[in-house]
Write a structure and sequence with these properties.
Elements (H helix, E strand, L loop, with lengths): L13 E2 L5 E4 L4 E5 L2 E6 L3 E4 L7 E5 L8 E3 L13 E7 L2 E9 L8 E4 L11 E4 L2 E3 L10 E5 L4 E5 L2 E6 L3 E5 L5 E3 L10 E10 L3 E8 L10 E4 L14 E2 L5 E4 L2 E2 L6 H11 L1
Antiparallel strand pairs: 1-2, 2-5, 3-4, 3-11, 5-6, 6-10, 7-8, 8-9, 9-10, 11-12, 13-16, 14-15, 14-22, 16-17, 18-19, 19-20, 20-21, 22-23
Length: 274
């Protein structure tokens, strides 16, 4: 069997001396800046940096429009594990500084990484896995998201006030995160909340809109969200409302759940202080 030089036949995560973890991917990945295809690869590699919980892609140089890259004029410091070589991207009539870089790891020699949506001023505009557009970051092949209809009795309280009560939830199970309870709108006191212009994107679920608590209490803004048009894999949550377990009190089948500590806990705390 013939294998790509950067793609050992056995699929497994490997670790570099720099602390990077990497794994070959078999997905066809493309990245575009405006109308220009900058990356078109059938041999991408997923890379996890030690300080980031989500993966990113690196690509063989042969799959990148390197003619659109030039040595960075103002390379950053302290970003991306051990990286010292950065590139500016000149495409579609615009220069984006530090849009790409290389990792120093020998395992990833000959590969180039690009910024994604967490840094929209420097990254590419659109990314695709096969023919589906992907947002925020690549999907982690070791992470699973399941949306399961349930008949559990779910109640929600905010600042001591009951705001939701249903026996028709959809439970969303996502690796490394607490269960999220998506409730029918008819079973939520949405009149106690105000819609906001805040929105977020998730590579597994889609784009969410938010509501903030209108009442008293130490409650962070944007505590409720909903996916109007979720991705097909989680279609069961369409139009339903979910609350941050980290900031709301959720009672399931009569048991009051302990508020979890998650990566969102610090973000919610900062929202309270702002």
């Amino acid at each position: 069997m013939t294998t790509h030089p950067a793609h050992p036949g056995a699929r497994s995560i490997r670790t570099t001396p720099e602390g990077l973890m990497w794994e070959p991917s078999e997905r066809w990945v493309r990245g575009r800046k405006g109308d220009v295809t900058v990356v078109d690869s059938r041999h991408p590699v997923l890379v996890w940096e030690p300080h980031l919980p989500v993966p990113q892609y690196v690509f063989p140089r042969a799959d990148v429009r390197t003619d659109l890259l030039s040595p960075a004029q103002n390379p950053p410091t302290g970003t991306h594990t051990g990286s010292r070589v950065f590139y500016d991207l000149d495409a579609d009539g615009e220069v984006r500084e530090n849009a790409a870089w290389t990792f120093p790891a020998d395992d990833l020699a000959g590969h180039i990484a690009f910024e994604w949506f967490l840094r929209p001023d420097t990254g590419l505009d659109h990314w695709y896995e096969e023919d589906e557009e992907i947002f925020v970051h690549p999907r982690d092949p070791h992470k699973r998201v399941d949306a399961l209809p349930s008949s559990r009795h779910v109640e929600v309280e905010i600042a001591g006030q009951a705001v939701a009560d249903t026996r028709d939830p959809v439970l969303l199970f996502e690796t490394s995160l607490p269960i999220r309870y998506y409730l029918p709108r008819a079973d939520v006191r949405l009149d106690l909340f105000d819609a906001t212009d805040h929105s977020t994107r998730c590579p597994y679920k889609g784009t969410a809109g938010y509501w903030s608590w209108r009442g008293e209490g130490d409650v962070p803004p944007n505590i409720v969200w909903s996916y109007r048009a979720p991705l097909p894999a989680v279609a069961a949550i369409k139009g339903r409302l979910a609350f941050y377990n980290e900031a709301a009190d959720i009672i399931v089948d009569g048991e009051r759940l302990k508020r979890p500590a998650t990566p969102f806990s610090e973000q919610l705390s900062k929202r309270r202080r702002s």
